Amino acid sequence: MATRASLSSAPPIASSTAIELRGISKSFRIPHEVRDTVREHFLHPLRQATYETNDVLRDVSFTINTGECFGIVGRNGCGKTTLLKTIARIYRPDEGEVFVNGLLSPFIELGVGFNPELSARDNIMISGALLGLSRRDLHDRFDDIIAFAELERFVDQRLKNYSSGMQVRLAYSVAIQVPFDILLVDEVLAVGDARFQQKCAQTFDEFRAAGKTVVLVTHDPHAIRVHCERAMLLENGAVVSIGSAGEVVDRYFEHEGISEA
């Protein structure tokens, strides 16, 4: 059967719509046998690897409005990060269509684009350039990036000596300096400490006040209830519920069979 998959930055979507997904499906092939060495290939040159298919996203459709904070919640392994990467064009869907109306700034994987052997100063210049900032932009915004990340004392220290919390502060600080209309955020609130989580929450409020769109992916339903207007519950790659943040969080606890603390 023929499949259709496309990614687009242009309408046909309404100007009030930031993101629209139509029937998105995504699968990965998982090998049953992995041959990692030359010796294994030499000893068994004709052995055929077998695969099974892991259906990560299953016919996912939803719309995110311009200027809203939209949450995506679900247990680990339900497909949240794959969905975010599909929106960010890191993955191409097997089926369905993705429409994005505006510039994206993805904050998806901690440390992507960072070189652990280099200092924070050098990594800011490199990752910022990869995200589209000019050398002048980086020079003008450098102090703000370091100040937001609270890394003034460690700016010339190699990243391999940073804690995960320090790295996430630096990565998020760089990501929000890039001009964007839509910010994709994956689990930043789960890695940073309480102080940094509060600073992130403040930026979410500032972005919404400026008419920007925030997509917050997390397995923490409390963060969804606090920060988002609407949300979606994802389970085994399929949409279970879409609605107000409070309704979706209630559905999450009901679906998991647990009571909210």
Write a structural description.
This protein is α/β, with parallel strands linked by helices. The protein has a domain at 68-94 and 103-256: P-loop containing nucleotide triphosphate hydrolases (Rossmann fold, 3-Layer(aba) Sandwich), CATH 3.40.50. Helix content is 35%, strand content 28%. It has helices at 38-43, 80-87, 120-130, 135-149, 164-175, 188-191, 194-209, 221-227, 245-256; strands spanning 5-8, 17-31, 51-65, 69-73, 95-100, 104-107, 182-186, 213-218, 230-235, 238-244. The strands form 2 sheets. The chain has a 6-stranded mixed beta sheet, sandwiched between helices. A 4-stranded mixed beta sheet has the order 1-5-2-3, covered by helices on one side. Helix 4 (135-149) packs across helix 5. The mean pLDDT is 85.
What keywords describe this structure?
single chain; 261 residues; alpha/beta; Rossmann fold; four-stranded mixed beta sheet; 9 helices; 28% strand
Secondary structure: number of strands = 10
Tally of contiguous helical segments: 9
User: From the alpha-carbon coordinates, what is the Rg to the nearest angstrom?
Assistant: 20 Å
- Biggest sheet statistics: 6 strands, mixed
Helix content: 25-40%
CATH class of one domain: Alpha Beta
- What is the succession of H and E elements? EEHEEHEEHHHEHHEHEEH
Widest sheet: strand ordering: 6-7-8-4-9-10
Structural class: alpha/beta
Give the uncertain stretches in residue-range form.
none
User: Which fold name is given in CATH as the topology of one domain?
Assistant: Rossmann fold
- How would the global form be characterised? globular
